[in-house]
Write a structure and sequence with these properties.
By secondary structure, this protein is of the alpha/beta class. The protein contains eight helices and eight strands. The chain has a single domain, classed as Rossmann fold, CATH 3.40.50. Helix 2 packs across helix 7, helix 3 runs parallel beside helix 5 and helix 5 packs parallel to helix 6. The radius of gyration is 18 Å and the shape is globular. This is GDSL family lipase.
Length: 279
């Protein structure tokens, strides 16, 4: 990769991690690492263009089918592709099939851009991570091989000890909070060859373990507000991304807005134009 290359456009493809959950803004929308990175790149390049097509809850097959072609059609300098974790965190998963669909998306995106970026996604330390670690490591090993095949950059977030710290994760225990996303944006910034603004791997201060009552209250709130709704969606075949079709982010307006499917139609609808990002 050309270090500190000039990128005048950026398209982000993926699921809730790239959409920005759970770096919440006051109006209820999300910002996230991709928006933060786009704003920093825009500050260096007048006329910078950015589109975030990521949608929460999407499986890798949906990302490949719904996002990769519109993203490739935009012909961006920089494209990020992150997906597959929603698949491997399900009770049953064919990891080889997930890798095949990820490869399909990469093969469509790589020729369309100056630089493709893949990631080894972060994981919150705890029993859930340990249960699914073998699947995640299989997926991430494939990401490394896929990157070598396409000359892509790999940002290793999974290997960063600090990003496993629960204090960088939201109450839902599935998504990074604002500080977590800020660190991912800095990791991306450095991976693109820019001078570091800080050490995104720096550990947090020693944690003070909450008391028994506080831990039980937190567990109860997590179960009520996040776990039970998630189980309900699984049982009814619904997804948190239903009805959503990718987003643009306007740094000028300070908000994200959805690109809706065609009226009365199926699918996501292509993103047919760019939104100018302002620093």
């Amino acid at each position: 990769m050309q270090m500190n290359a000039t990128y005048t456009s950026f398209v982000a493809v993926g699921d809730s991690f790239t959409e920005g959950m759970s770096d919440g803004l006051p109006d209820g929308s999300y910002r996230g690492w991709a928006d933060l990175l786009a704003a920093r790149l825009a500050a260096r390049h007048p006329g910078f263009r950015y589109a975030n097509l990521a949608v929460r809850g999407k499986l890798i097959g949906q990302i490949a089918d719904e996002q990769s072609a519109p993203a490739a059609a935009l012909g961006a300098d920089l494209v990020t592709l992150v997906g597959g974790l929603n698949d491997v965190l399900r009770p049953k998963c064919d990891v080889d099939a997930v890798c095949a669909r990820l490869a399909e998306a990469a093969e469509r995106l790589a020729p369309s851009c100056k630089q493709l970026v893949l990631m080894r996604s972060p994981g919150r330390r705890g029993p859930v991570l340990e249960r699914f670690r073998p699947r995640m490591e299989q997926l991430f090993s494939f990401v490394e091989a896929l990157a070598e095949r396409h000359g892509a950059v790999v940002v290793d977030l999974f290997g960063a000890e600090v990003l496993g710290d629960a204090r960088l994760w939201a109450d839902d225990r599935l998504h990074l909070n604002a500080e977590g996303h800020r660190r991912v944006a800095e990791a991306m910034w450095q991976a693109l060859g820019h001078e570091p603004e800080d050490d995104w791997r720096a550990p947090l201060p020693p944690a003070v373990r909450p008391g028994w009552a506080a831990r039980r209250a937190s567990d109860a709130r997590f179960t009520r507000e996040h776990l039970v709704p998630w189980i309900g969606r699984r049982l009814t075949g619904r997804s948190s991304g239903d009805g959503r079709a990718g987003a643009h982010f306007s740094a000028d307006e300070g908000r994200a807005f959805w690109v809706s499917p065609p009226a009365g139609g199926a699918g996501t609808g292509d993103v047919t134009g760019w939104l100018r990002a302002q620093p």
